[in-house]
What does this fold into?
Amino acid sequence: MEQRLVPVLLSLVSVLTASAQNQEKPHTLNRAQRSFTVVEATIPEMQAAMRAGQVTSRELVLQYLTRIALYEDKLHAVITVNPNALKEAETLDRERARGRMRGPLHGIPIALKDNIQTTNMPTTGGALAFDGFVPPYEATLTTNLRRAGAVIIAKTSMTELANWVAGAPTPMPGNYNAIAGYGMNPYDPRRDPREASDGRPALGAGGSSSGVGTAANFWAANVGTETSGSILNPANQNMLAAIKPTVGRISRRGVIPITADQDTPGPLAKTVTDAAILLGAMEGAAPDPNDAATSACKRPPNHDYRPFLKANGLRGARIGIPRAFYYDEVVPPDTLFPSGGLKPEQKIVMAEAVEILKKLGAKIVDPADIASIISPDSQANLLLWNYCSGDQNGKGKDENCSTVFKYGMKRDFNNWLRSLGPTAPVKSLTDLRQFNLAHQAAGAIKYGQSQLDISDEMDVDADRARYEADRAKDIVLAGTHGIDAALKENHLDALVFPGATGAAIAAKPGYPTVIVPFGRIPNEPTPPFPDGFDAKPAPFGVSFTGTACSEPRLIELAYAFEHATKRRMAPPSFP
It folds into this structure.
């Protein structure tokens, strides 16, 4: 809904006008101080500038708000701007002047995916039924970020309900929702010019956790959520670093769910350093009593991941290359046609990455194939076991797929609605589906709601045994006989995947991944763009994946790779 830009931009005008009218002398910066720019500035650089009196948190917020006002109409990165962001920054500036520092994010503007609850802004999930809804409590991670000193400047656009609304026959495109429309990629912010296009971007913005605003310097970093790819894909597509944590390391309390089996929040940023700082702040000092999974991983001292930022972190590391399917195509058992594999340009990028890893002192184990990917047994082959999706996998048509997503959505979404009490705009998944049908003319379900439909037909009690069996199979194929077996058999510190291609296998057992910006590849869709359309190249990252709770080691490896390569480039159209 493009008209959503009007209230976003009007709210910005209101905030900026009030800022000009209420400016106090203590916040006025001289010419030298105003020379500090937020464009591509890292969190440590901003902190150093604030310590030196070169800039204030208020000025950082003002610069970011100005950039949102300039470029939001081209990118659609925002659902809501915090109308009190400047006031919150001023409070943090006064605390800093008195010598009080809340934490590593003191005064740093951060955005949240709009499925993460805030009580001073709406939380919509991009769904029309929740437009304007302000929840009765804030997410635990929101509280942790505020305690660390963050200014929550905005709520980002996202794929509606984290992309569990519409599957086949008309799947919803990534970064589309009924409230804000299509999110655009800052590395090519044009519409798809092909004749059959419906207005979606020419270069996809990735998964449902919009990295658009971070890439375009609308804020320092943002928090996304992932069930399967929704942190790693947007990081890959927007040339960002990101950490998809072990499920449970970050509390899910106050986050609109798909399934607690795989849901996790995580940071997207311009550097591994920024992502590591944000991860520690999100995790907080202690487990969340409202999310039992937060006791699964041991916290580092002071919940601080910065000690793992080591330039020599790859020296002596054993890195595995899961060549089958992820690099080279394979023919799954009992099938005729090959699956997976990289395109020639992607192979060139990854070959260079592997050579760099060797030069940095890593021992490369190639191949380090994943047993469940190359298994000749069709019942034990992960490539033949996907999650049930779309109308072709409804009840009675779901014998050969995992029901974990559609069962989890019925169970966990209804539980989340109950946690909202009487303020909930709808009371059940059934209510939401009925609302959507009644508001089709307003754009509630442009692509239908086949995912919601197949979820709502699940019976949480009667289908529990089937769900538990499917969940166990997910963990065996992706974890025990998947990532864990590859790591153990080859004595590896991590597996390296091209781009975000390892997201799905790591998501099933809830394992962590750190992605780093690295290369660029041609944007060549099928069918092709029309003659004369100069498609810009797509970013392409390198991912480090490990077993549960291995974030500290993955951060070491990813930081060392990033430190040696420094391949991130700002989007040229948004100086």
Remarks:
- The chain has one domain: 1-22+37-288+296-312+370-468+513-575.
- Residues 1-22+37-288+296-312+370-468+513-575 form a domain with the Amidase signature (AS) enzymes fold (CATH 3.90.1300.10).
